[in-house]
Amino acid sequence: MLLKRFLQRSSNLYAENRLLKFSVVVLAVGFVWCSYKIDDVKERVRTVVVPPVISSQIEISGSWTTDAYVKEYVRYIGSLVWNYSPGVARNQFGEMLSSWHPSVFENAKERLYIMADQIELTQAASVFYISKIEHSHDTHTIEVTGTRRLTQKEEQMENVVKTYIVTYVVENGRFWLMSIEEKGKEKGVGKPVGAKR
Question: Dmax over Cα atoms in the chain, in whole Å?
Fold first, then answer.
């Protein structure tokens, strides 16, 4: 950049320096302003993640979530824990482990793999047809009612209406399972349905 504003070359150089310093200051102020605005926008931006099991609009905020999300998630979890056959049970339970809260993860893992061993040993298969889902925001529980059909070595062992209680927490926008238990049975944190003691 060469300024030809003054007759003396040194005066032109000083003017260039002042102009360059002014440009640097303007760029620095612009950078600081952009950084502040980006941080401000980052706090207000919502990321919408739609897992493959979700087909409706949902919202999760802090420790609150919509009924639609809870019901969709319970259907997804139900397809993993209540609908199984000897060939797929272990893989389904492994996929389900990512939904358990860290405080009950080890207990849930142990019980799910014991259940998978029993399913493979007895050649049991289960299908659960959900007929009703009731969600309570206050207690963070979901009551799932449906018909369970259990077969063992292709012989029907059970065809009854059952109700399961799913306890959950939502922390920082993340849905975590705390327990799944059959209604009327002994309660236990992280106790999956069907697991033996």
Answer: 105
